[in-house]
Specification:
Structural class: alpha+beta
Number of domains: 5
Number of helices: 29
Helix content: 40-55%
Largest sheet: 12 strands, mixed
Distance between the termini: 68 Å
Length: 901
């Protein structure tokens, strides 16, 4: 049995790959048998030629026998496919310009989808590298009702170490439940100190992953014991390679992280990035050592320091509902335990309704996903729309080619080719062209994906290439789908052939014009292009509104300097003196205009204290009030304008009368019908000394771009009373160019292991604009691409129509039509389709307003300016695409056109 199967397999392989040899063997065998039969007739006296004729009659035809033999081989389908591929390749070689146009059009659509899928996959679909049982690993979210919030429901993924320990003690559905936190911490000593992202993780964290360390080991549970843990560190692979040269002898060496010397015990494997998808940690510390290093105190009963994220794996057999119930019960017990630990009653469980639930491990898919992830989903959908436009464009081109080949197709059908066989050949041609486009698209995705990665995955691990196995599979499927979609139109055209009419038409294409199909495809392209351009316009308007929003301070020329004492013990007075020395030293640096201490920094850190005003029952009910302090140069340094009164001066010392400057909105909120100058503020307590308002400053955005109830007040730093920990430095030019100079000069003043960190203020403000920047950039790029494809499709359809209607145009001109009227005829035909596309596309775009509106800033999803602009752009593109075909039609010679027919 096996021998027969092996023999059969060998024969089929030979028949497929050595077809000529098999054919020669078949011819020789047939000649042998026919010769033997002819010899029988010759022995009866029949002449040689007649004997051969009779022998062939006995066999019933050589060609029939050959076909039956080929059918027995079982390779006819594969052979026909090979023939179809060869025919398609010959077609590409015969018309390289046409093939290049089709391939490049598809490459644009397929490349855009490949690049965006790589981003979409990494952000929303792909689990973290090495994660074991990814379908059972979840991020933990906590929620409760808060009567002071609107809406009252509050959801968070961040909690305290004390609550994490409560969860570990009181849950039974997880193996394991872990905590993790990533912060930027100084690594190294002195001038070599640099901040890196450092993760603090509980001992069970690495058990979530199926991996081994590249060197050494991971830390153990005993090294993560409360309250201090052990000073051991596991290096990230990228940090080990870039900062330590990839040396294998790093184990056992010490590394200062924050205020503590840690011993290196291992190196994580390559591509490992943990669970914090926003940033790749440079190293991993035991959670207890991480917390003690940041704040040397026992965190086992501290519910205030909310820094920790939680993740858990469900064991097999434990459902999501069961795990959520277990987690909620533990959360409610912890809710009560916090009230006991803080000696104050917690909000009743019946009213607060605290509950916990498991969500996707990818933060971007959970209930706290930021607007950036929603914009990425939109952009992924836009990439699909671009592919549909490209497919419609290619289908139109293939349909036009099918029309020019209608006589050839009719002859093939008349000669016996089945319609199914013909359809298969046409689809194969589309597949070959799509494969060319897919190959070019992958190259474009890899080459052009760098800009996309920089915009959407600036710090993501493994983003060096977007073309991996998953992306290749999706690209191949997209290519095959594009081939099938684009091949439908020419196949349908071929299967509708009227043989008698097509063959009888001779060389003319009369009756073979699929104008309706072309019009539908063109309308489809125009409609989708309008949708994309409207979306792009709305995001561009949003970005313009955000950028034109007055922040109330300058961003580009300001540096933020933070002094990190790293455990160096200074009294408050010594700390304040150090800040004054840093401020004076900063002003002495060439290029620095001014400098000021400041406890609050926009979109990074801010301080608020209780305020009391005579005649106002609850100041906090009127909004959020942020406290700022600075020296006499504060307003000059940040660029905030004083609208009324004055700012700070040398006369505002520690022993001088207390003064404050309030923002314009704060003045309106607290004293709506009175002059704010000279009013009294009590800061910290209602018994505090009166602080007189001496000035009104312009409104500033400190923590939100859209809040209308966020106010700022300013006090002299001499009256602030505490070290600020931060210095704002204004430079003459772009702050990014002064970072290293300022850091190097100020580091010399830092005592012991203390260090300074210097970053541009722009780096803190820019992330708040990220979602609108992504939307505006990507949608504009894809919208422009769609517009180009639509213009190409419009031009090809109009040019093809002019070519097909040469005889009609010739007759019109022979009967007295002017070139101008012929030109108008051509242009009006294109404009009618585009107007219909604008109306249909605008309707679709407007219907997406409920979903898109939440991603926009201060612009309506039905903004008429955007819709009118898009309609004008489409009209101009239509006129441009119609110009050459219209001129060609106007130049038709009636005599030549009629003679051609």
């Amino acid at each position: 049995m096996l021998t027969e199967l092996w023999s059969e397999l060998r024969y089929r392989v030979r028949a497929l790959f050595f077809r000529d040899a098999i054919e020669q063997e078949l011819d020789a065998e047939l000649r042998f048998h026919i010769g033997c039969e002819a010899e029988k007739y010759e022995r009866l006296g029949v002449p040689r030629e007649e004997a051969l004729r009779r022998a062939r009659l006995v066999f019933g035809g050589v060609d029939r026998i050959k076909e039956e033999s080929r059918d027995v081989r079982g390779t006819v389908l594969l052979e026909s496919l090979v023939q179809d591929v060869r025919y398609a390749v010959r077609g590409v070689r015969a018309k390289p310009g046409f093939a290049a146009g089709v391939a490049l059009t598809l490459a644009l659509g397929i490349g855009a989808n490949s690049a965006m899928f790589g981003i979409f996959d990494r952000l929303l679909l792909r689990p973290p590298a090495y994660l074991r049982d990814a379908d059972r690993v979840h991020r933990v979210y906590m929620a409760w009702e808060d009567a002071e919030r609107t809406p009252p429901a509050r959801v968070t993924a961040v909690t305290s170490i004390a609550r994490y320990l409560d969860f570990v003690r009181n849950t039974h559905s997880f193996a394991p439940l872990v905590g993790f936190r990533t912060s930027r911490i100084a690594v190294g000593d002195g001038q070599a100190s640099r901040e890196f992202p450092v993760a603090g993780v509980s001992a069970g964290y690495f058990a979530l992953f199926d991996m081994r360390p590249a060197f050494g080991r991971f830390f153990t549970a005993s090294e993560d014991a409360m309250p201090t843990g052990s000073p051991v560190v596991v290096l990230g692979h990228a940090y080990w390679r870039s900062q330590l040269g990839g040396r294998p002898d790093v184990l056992g060496r010490t590394l200062r992280v924050g205020r503590t010397l840690f011993t290196i015990v291992g190196v994580a494997p390559e591509q490992f990035a943990g669970l914090d998808g926003d940033v790749v940690p440079a190293m991993y510390l035991p959670l207890t050592a991480f917390a003690w290093n940041a704040r040397p105190e026992d965190h086992s009963s501290d519910y205030h320091w909310q820094v920790l994220q939680l993740a858990a794996r469900r064991p097999p057999g434990v459902s999501l509902a069961e795990a959520n119930a277990d987690l909620t019960a533990a959360f409610q017990r912890s809710w009560i335990a916090r009230g006991v630990a803080e000696s104050r009653p917690s909000a009743p469980i019946a009213s607060a309704r605290p509950h916990a639930m498991l969500g996707p491990i990818q933060l971007e898919r959970g209930p706290l996903a930021g607007p950036e992830s929603r914009v990425v989903v939109w952009v992924m959908g836009v990439a699909v729309i671009v592919l549909l436009i490209a497919c419609a464009n290619v289908a139109s081109l293939l349909l036009a080619r099918a029309v020019t080949r209608h006589r050839e197709t009719a002859l093939r059908l008349a000669l016996g080719v089945s319609r199914g066989r013909l359809a298969r050949q046409l689809v194969t041609e589309s597949l070959v062209l799509a494969l060319l486009g897919g190959s070019v698209g992958l190259v474009a995705a890899q080459w052009g994906g760098a800009a996309v990665r920089a915009l959407l995955l600036p710090e993501h691990v493994g983003a060096a290439t977007l073309v991996d196995g998953r992306t290749l599979v999706v690209t191949c499927l997209t290519t095959v789908l594009a081939a099938l979609v684009t091949g439908l139109a020419p196949v349908a055209q071929a299967l509708r052939h009227d043989l008698a009419h097509s063959i009888g038409a001779g060389g003319r294409d009369a009756g073979a014009r699929p104008t309706r199909a072309h019009s539908v495809l063109l309308l489809f392209q125009a409609t989708l292009s309008v949708v994309l351009l409207v979306w792009a316009g709305l995001f561009v308007r949003s970005l313009q509104n955000v950028r034109s929003l007055p922040l109330g301070y300058d961003v580009d020329p300001v540096l933020v300097v933070t002094d990190e004492l790293r455990g160096v013990k200074l009294t408050p007075a010594e700390n304040v003196a150090l800040e004054h020395r840093l401020s004076d030293a900063a002003r002495a640096i060439p290029g620095v205009v001014s400098a000021t201490p400041a406890p609050s920094v926009p979109f990074w850190g801010y301080e608020g204290r209780a305020l009391f005003v005579v005649g106002v029952d609850s100041v906090s009910a009127l909004g959020s009030f942020v406290m700022q302090a600075g020296n006499a140069d504060y307003f000059r340094t940040v660029g905030t304008r004083i609208l009324r009164g004055r700012g700070f001066g040398a006369q505002d010392g520690a022993s001088s009368p207390r003064v404050a400057v309030v923002s314009e909105g704060m003045a309106r909120a607290l004293w709506p019908a009175r002059d704010p100058l000279g009013q009294c503020l009590r800061i910290g307590a209602d018994t505090a000394p009166c602080t007189l308002v001496v000035g009104v400053a312009e409104e500033v955005r400190i923590s939100s771009l859209s809040s209308q109830r966020e106010y700022t007040y300013y006090v002299p730093v001499t009256q602030y009373g505490d070290p600020t920990g931060t210095l704002l430095v204004r430079v003459a030019g772009d702050a990014a160019g002064y970072v290293e100079t300022v850091r190097r000069e100020l580091q010399r003043l830092m005592p012991g292991t203390a260090y300074v960190n210097v970053v541009p203020l722009r780096s803190m403000v820019s992330p708040k604009l990220q979602s609108w920047r992504i939307g505006a950039t990507m949608l504009t790029a894809f919208g422009a691409l769609a517009l180009v494809l639509a213009a190409i499709g419009l031009y090809s359809v109009i040019a093809y129509r002019v070519l097909q209607r040469r005889r009609e145009i010739g007759v019109r001109m022979a009967l007295g039509a002017s070139p101008r009227s012929v030109t108008g005829l051509v242009v009006r035909g294109g404009l009618r389709l585009v107007v219909a596309g604008v109306l249909l596309g605008s309707t679709i775009a407007a219907s997406t307003g409920p979903w898109l509106g939440a991603l926009l800033f201060d612009v309506s999803p039905t903004d008429p300016v955007v819709y009118i602009a898009v309609a004008a752009v489409l009209a101009l593109v239509t006129l441009a695409a119609s110009a050459l075909p219209a001129l060609s039609a106007a130049r038709v010679d009636p005599v030549v056109a009629l003679r051609e027919e």
